[in-house]
Amino acid sequence: MIDPLTLDELREDYGATPRRIDTRLLPLTRIATGPKQPFPTVKLLVMSALVYGAGVGICLALDERPELGMMLAAPIWMGIGIGMIRAASPSARTGKLLETATLVEGRAIKAHGRLYQPGDEPEVAAVAFSTSEDHRFDRLYLRDVVKKVRAAAEAKTPPAELADVAARVDADGPPVKVPSSVAPDGETWVARVIVDPKRLPEAKLVDHAVPLLVRPAEGLAAHV
User: Fold this and answer.
1) Is the peptide bond prior to 197 cis by the omega test (within 30 degrees of 0)?
2) Which residue, 160, 116, 143, 137, is CA-closest to 212?
3) Please, are residues 204 and 175 in contact by the beta-carbon 8 Å criterion?
4) Phi/psi of residue 127, each to 5°?
5) Residues of the chain with pLDDT under 70
6) Which of 110, 208, 193 lies closest to 154 in space, CA to CA?
């Protein structure tokens, strides 16, 4: 059970980095970020040859049976292999990003209607947020950005400079940076995130606010 926390409580618990991946953050490691890494087949083969070769070589040097070296190498091979497979998994990459991600307060540009009523079913919302120190909790600044982005997304033909941003409001993909002509700090982004009402103090969106952990350049924007 994930307890709902206010923004002030989140800032106290998760404002500092690096942070520990606790029970609240662990489910967020399932969020896909970046391209899927291939299974480390070649690395595993090379590692196997080195580990077993070293075990057999040591036994031969000590005039022991080669089978003993293979038996001794087996647990080492398993430990290293499991570590390599875990490191290649998407959850490991996302977990590393979460350890140093920036805590921000995003603002919903467009969200599923159910998120504005108390509930417990996660739904998608398009949000704007800033990673700059001056604006990551600045609601007035973000409200102005949201107003402009929403207008572009609702326009039949959005302005050319906001075409990519407007497209992200309705289509999945990595976070998109808002041009500085619209968001002057140059560190404002738009992303689509899964909002979990069970994490919100009133089990719904209030004042369009969504607390997030973000590393937008690496594809991470997660409702915390």
Assistant:
1) no
2) 137
3) no
4) -130, 155
5) 34-48, 51-52, 55-56, 59, 66, 68-74, 76-90
6) 110
